[in-house]
Every structure is written in C-alpha cells, then in structure tokens.
Amino acid sequence: MNIEALTTYITTTPLIWLLITLGSFKLGIIIYERFNKNPLLQPIIISYFIIICALFMTGVSYEEYFKSVEIIHFFLGPATVALALPLYNNLKYIKSLFFPILITLLIAGTFSIVLAVFLLWVLGAQLPTILSMTTKSITAPIAIITSEQIGAIPSLAVGFVIITGIIGAVLGTTIFKLLNIKHDTSKGFALGVISHGIGTARAIEISQKAAAFSALAMGLSGIVTAIFLPLIVEFLK
Amino acid sequence: MLKGIITLLVFQFLGECITKLFGLLVPGPVIGMVLLLLFLILKKSSFESLDNAVTLHLRYLPLLFIPAAMGIITQVDIISKEFWAICISLVFGTIIALAFCAKLMDYLTIRQEDKK
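Above: the input entities. Below: the structure tokens describing the complete assembly.
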C-alpha cells in the first residue's frame, strides 16, 4: 500500500474541493428543508460555514480553492441567460399593471440603491464597500458579473445580496401587514425588486399571483440594474 | 436537453460578443438573457429541451455562486472595520426600501383600478 501517493492525491486533486462544495450544499438543502424552509437557514449559509472550516483547517488559500471549483463558477454565465425563461413565463402579467410596474421598478429600484449608498456614506464606509452595496437587491448571478464590471468586490456583493434577501424574506410579511398593503401583486413585486430570489421563494407562500409578480420583478430589476448601473458609475467616476 | 444547453451557451456567447464588439458596459450574459427573452417573445413559446436546461441551471442556483461568495474570507479587513456601517445600511436600507416599494406599487395599482 502506498499511503504517501494517496495523501498526495487527496491533497492536490480539485475533486476534493468540488466534493466538499457540492456535499456541503446538499447538506444545507437537507437542513433547510428539515426546518420548513426557514429563510435564515439558506443552504448557501450552511455550506459557507462548512467550507470556511475546511479551508481554515487545511490552510488552503482562497485562490487555490477557487481554482479547484472554477468549473462551478463558469455556470453563472448560462444560468444568467436561463433567467430569461421565468421572466418570459411571467411577462404576460406585465400588461395588466404596466404603468404601476414600470414606475415602481424605476423609482423604488433607484431609491433602494441611493438609500443604502447614502447610509454607508454617512457612516464613513469606503468606496469599495459602497460600490459592492449597489447590487444588493438583484439576483446573485447578475450581481456578481455586474459588480465585477463596476470595480466592486464580488464576494462582498454576494454577501450583501444574500443578507438583503434574507431580511426581506423574514420581515416582508410583517411590513406588509403594518402598512396595510392590499394587493398580493404589490407584495410579490416588492419582494422581487428588493429581495430577488430569496424574496421570490417567500412570495410563493403568500400566493401564486405574488410569486409570479416577484419573479417578474426580479428579472426586470436584474436587467435594468445591469444595464444602467455601470453607466452611472462610469459617469460619476 | 442538449439542445437547451446549447441554446443557453449560444446566447451567452452572442451576448459576450456584442459586449466586446460595441464596448458595452453591460455584462455579456445579461445581453444574452435579453436576447433569449426577445427570441422567446418572437417565437411565442419555449421548448421542452430549453425548459429542462433552465431548470438544471436554476434549481441549484445558489450553489453556482459559492466559489465567488467564498472570496469573503479575503475581505475580513473591510468587514471588521466597517461592520456597523454595513449592518445599518443592510437592515434599515432593506426595510425602508421594501416598505416604500410595496406602498408605491399598491398606491399605483389602486389608482389605476379607480380610473377604470
């Protein structure tokens, strides 16, 4: 038996990090479903902690880890293109409320970014953090490629995206009740604009209509933000 | 499902090409997404193989951003220095924006219904 050859293989193969990444995510899904899909227990967060522990214990750097699992990262591209289909399937709802949708999308979407940036600026945050906050309300695959485009820190941006999603999903229903929001379409649309996919998962529990409007909002705000944000950042620079 | 996967990759490729060719600031895959959306609108329906390929990509979507998201371990400096600014911006920014968005949409919807 050649123990040495085995150890060398295990410590150098990218397979081990692919297995840890996929395995920890699967474990995350199992835990998430066991706890009735509690938004606080997003599978990715459970996965996060397991991988951080594994990296910490083995002393492997982020660069080495990323190289091993780069194949997963590649699929963000086609996954972004794939977002066109749920958007297409829900596009028929746009006609019934065209102007409310258009106005809310543009005004509330801009307001959300300006507010978050303003709060950071007042509290003395640095430019990389502020830039990384601008993509917080759009779905993570678009947030990653857009944040790369505007010179933000993609990993920070993803972190902000996930936390924004969770806050919206956890507090959404309470906020809607306090404000006496009448239409499920408004609830769904707000969850989609502000809390992207995690909000949409929550909207499914409100009603079918809310879920459709949430998916619609998520797709539209992703496209609008990805098109205009780099232009605005470039202009301000 | 292969046809569907090829469709996604072709639209991504087209998107990236257009971005490079015209020096656009929009990320290539987003252009690809818009092109696929236009294609579906013109074609008036999706096809099974594309449906399957999309489900494959979106079912485990969060898994796909783990490699990028793990970069957070290299940002400990920023996070510890600006921890409270980040927390306040995220919590209050999200709550206020969500409330504003829902109220605005609801107000505009009710107004449109009244007009009818």
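Note for the figure: Residues 221 and 233 of chain A are 17 Å apart (CA to CA).
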